[in-house]
Amino acid sequence: MSDGPFLLVVSHDDKSETHAFHKDVVSIGRSRECDLFLPDRLISRIHCRVERRDGVFALVDAGAQNPAKMHGRPVLRSEIKVGDSFAVGSYEVTLSVPVIENASVDETHAGGDNGRGAQDLVAFLQIARALNEEQDLARLLTQIVDAGIQICGAERGFLLLPQGEEHSVEVARNFAQEEVLSPEFKISRTIASRVMATGVAELTTNAQEDDRFRDLQSVTDLRLRSVLCIPIRIQNEIGGVIYVDNRLQQQVFQEREKMLLMSLSDHAATAIVNARSMEQLRTKQFELQAALDRVDQLNGALKGQLQETTSELSQIREEISGLGTRSKYDYKQIVGTGSAMRAVFALLDKYIDAEDPVLITGDSGTGKELVARAIHTHSNRSQNTFVSENCGALPESLLESELFGFVRGAFTGATANKKGMLETASGGILFLDEVGDMALDLQKKLLRVLQEGEVRPLGSQTTIKVDVRLICATNRNLELMVQEGEFREDLYYRLAVLPVHLPPLRDRKEDLPQLVKRFLGDLQRETQGRVRVSPDAMEKVVGYSWPGNVRELQNEIRRAAILCDGIILESHLSSHVREGRRGPGSVLLDDGLVPAERGTTLPDMVRDLEIREIQKAFDRAQANKSRAADLLGLSRFALQRKVEKYELDQSGRPVVAPDDDGASDGN
Questions:
Q1: What average pLDDT does range 430-439 have in this prediction?
Q2: CB neighbour list of residue 398: distance below 8 Å, 6 or more residues apart
Q3: Which of 201, 287, 450, 470 has the smallest count of CB within 10 Å of its CB?
Q4: What CA–CA distance (Å, rounded) separates 575 from 558?
Q5: pTM above 0.70, yes or no
């Protein structure tokens, strides 16, 4: 190679010039004395050299302030191969060699047409540049085959790679760049296998008359004419073959096409190695990222465990420091160790042994029924019945028959005697939830039972002695209802002998981690899967106001546990919890109010409608409560009751998100 010329193709501003050199050292720079003159102020007078020794080329720096670059990196001395490009200032220089012997290229020619050799060179350089830029292996192999078909004028092209003891057809295309179906039956595997084994290219201008292929059945069956098969040498081994053919014409492939395809094969081998390296690098990056994600997940789990341990130690310290004030009873079903709940437990310690009625107040979802059951569990009535009823869930007539019972014939459908809940709970405890929703007539009858200790079933003329301890619960302001005549004053004083108020969850933030742990423990027993909460997610949980109290928290944790993969992250929480804003309520559409996540019950819809109309009235009345009441058709006291019920300020705007008053207390 050292005796023949080599080419330097210079590209600048979308133009290219080809320069041929016979000497073994070519200087490049801004000086006109250089062999390759490049007029650019960023280029030194003598910038670099291309040296050739024993057919091996090297790019050598000549002391430039900004050396020539290959693949974006400065080069002091580096071997370069045919097809490699390097940057000198704003110029790109590509090393090449003449493809066809005796092809003349004028050393001073600038982009003209000097015959077929120059055309081949330009086409090959374009192909080489395209292959250099492609990093996806599958697309690269397709481009190699399309390029082979183009430069050889073939009808079809195939690329085969070794696969174990055999070799597979990775790409099969025709001159129209269409896929060739069932390619394994469209080529001579014998020719391909022979080239793969020997590494020697095979060319035939007419396979039907070529003595080398006379005994090959595939050549006869496929009626092959022109065939050219070139090995792909990858790191000194045969890494595949490029196979092109033309079944219709003879003499399609000559030595020119063989040399072109061999040059393409050499360049393709380098491109394949690079693409495979990039593919391996991407795979390693994916594996590394997956490992990092796993590490983050494990760190979150460890932080969660540390947080749990810290919380448990803090709880132990509180228990040790508070041994003198420890509760008389074990309220293990009611989660809470903060000051607010300790005050509740202190009251319960005193209430449990008494026989007087207990009135439990508090927002919806704070766990009022749990408190009632705790009183029953630890009282001397624990061996007898605990009966529970929601006064807001039944119409007045049905609630009356449920409470007092009835005899046969008392009303239509009464075909047999039935005990009422007061009689059923005799000796035990009767829990009446939402007692504020009880009608006035029914309140009067309940008061008589409490005063006289006896009940008369509907339709009966006789009374039955009952011994019942009554526990009532409500999320309404019974004192205000008494003032407005909606609840009997005498009954109120009978029920509120032993009052206990359950604080909302927003006032007992210290209990949130324990509640979350309890809910996750319940879920683990149900699903046999352990779930933890990341510190970031726990921070959001503690920071949220929880207008739906314990019930809302339980539903939120259950939902997040279903969505996560073992660790509840911040992203698994609802958006309103993450952002610390009011949760989803109802959406007002053109055709009316449509409930969203908070429920689809009629009380939900009535609540939101009343809040909206109160706000409108306050706006029209300029915050004058008496005038706003007139606009709403209510008394001033009735309006005040609704303002307190929905926790509105003096302008009718919510102080906190309204609770779900239409739902029964739960846990």
A1: 92
A2: none
A3: 287
A4: 15
A5: no
